[in-house]
Write a structure and sequence with these properties.
This protein is α/β, with parallel strands linked by helices. The protein is built from eleven helices and twelve strands. The strands form two sheets. Strands 1, 2, 3, 4, 5, 7, 8, 9, 11 and 12 form a ten-stranded mixed sheet that branches. Strands 6-10 form a two-stranded parallel sheet. Strand 2, helix 2 and strand 3 form a beta-alpha-beta unit. Helix 1 crosses helix 3 and helix 5 packs across helix 6. The protein is globular. The protein starts with a strand and ends with a strand.
């Protein structure tokens, strides 16, 4: 599904520090790439960290299919940072967990939904068990919450500007309010990126965080999913609709002619692309 975005304004101020750090990394990478250009045409991309290894898998297969083209994924940008880099002309497209906001669409952008992946709660507990969807807010909010074996629940948060924080607020009743109260407690760890999120959760006994199936499958952190309302966040359950919680994955790029990007999109939508998306914990989105 291709969605044209009408103009509006620049990314939210809350993401400015992360964007600045990310653009420094991007600038360093571009300097290296320009100094030693490859024979193949390179598509520069970056975005939501949970898709980094899945995109690398797609990139390898795309280059094998089209040796004259390849894809480079710039790490640690996040959705907002990658969209900002597209606007500045430093990336060919962004891989995001959301379409551009109204403010980000000041410049003419196109968003294409390419996949969906299950999104859920994870813990370092070996057997975290099941939680009712209407009890998730209380699990986060209650400072005395414990896992079935008596281990205290220790929450890992994302910055308010991160899309995963907004996803959790939309999916689970009253969770947004509970998380806002948690933000007032200095001892609660805050993970800036998707990779920080699973790394911190993996180090803390009794952790409670949110993550996508694609990141869990590809990075294999020492974390386990909770089931919600008795249903595990598997790709099969997600596809049949019994597990309803998911994250949409978009490609965002400047509206216009992009022959190499069009070839990559065609590859993603091919039988091979759909197979690779499925192997990496994603359901392909039909155009």
């Amino acid at each position: 599904m291709r969605q044209a975005i009408r103009p509006a304004s620049f990314p939210a101020r809350a993401a400015a520090r992360l964007i600045g750090r990310s653009l420094v990394l991007l600038g360093a990478w571009l300097a290296t790439a320009i100094a030693d250009p490859a024979a193949a045409e390179v598509l520069r991309t970056g975005g939501t960290g949970s898709m980094e290894l899945a995109m690398q898998r797609l990139s390898t297969a795309f280059h094998a299919d089209r040796p004259d083209s390849k894809l480079e994924f710039i790490p640690s940008l996040g959705s907002a940072g990658a969209i900002a880099a597209v606007v500045d002309g430093q990336l060919d497209f962004a891989v995001t967990g959301r379409p551009p906001t109204v403010k980000e669409a000041t410049h003419s952008l196109t968003a294409v939904l390419i996949a969906r992946t299950p999104f859920g709660l994870v813990s370092s507990q070996p057997s975290p068990g099941d939680v009712r969807s209407d009890a998730i807010a209380a699990l986060f909010a209650n400072p005395h919450s414990k896992w079935p074996d008596g281990t205290p629940v220790r929450v890992v948060l994302r910055p308010p500007s991160e899309n995963d924080a907004a996803l959790m607020d939309r999916m689970f009743p009253k969770l947004g309010e509970a998380i806002e109260h948690l933000r007032l407690r200095n001892e609660i760890p805050l993970a800036a990126t998707d990779q920080d999120n699973v790394a911190i959760a993996g180090r803390i006994a009794g952790s409670l965080a949110a993550a996508t199936l694609t990141q869990m499958l590809m990075e294999k952190p020492s974390l386990q999913f909770l089931s919600i309302d008795g249903v595990a966040p598997t790709l099969e359950n997600f596809e049949r609709g019994s597990y309803p919680y998911g994250k949409d994955i978009y490609l965002v790029f400047a509206t216009g002619e992009h022959p190499t990007l069009d070839r990559f999109l065609a590859f993603v939508r091919s039988a091979e692309g759909e197979r690779l998306l499925h192997e990496t914990g994603n359901l392909a989105a039909r155009p």
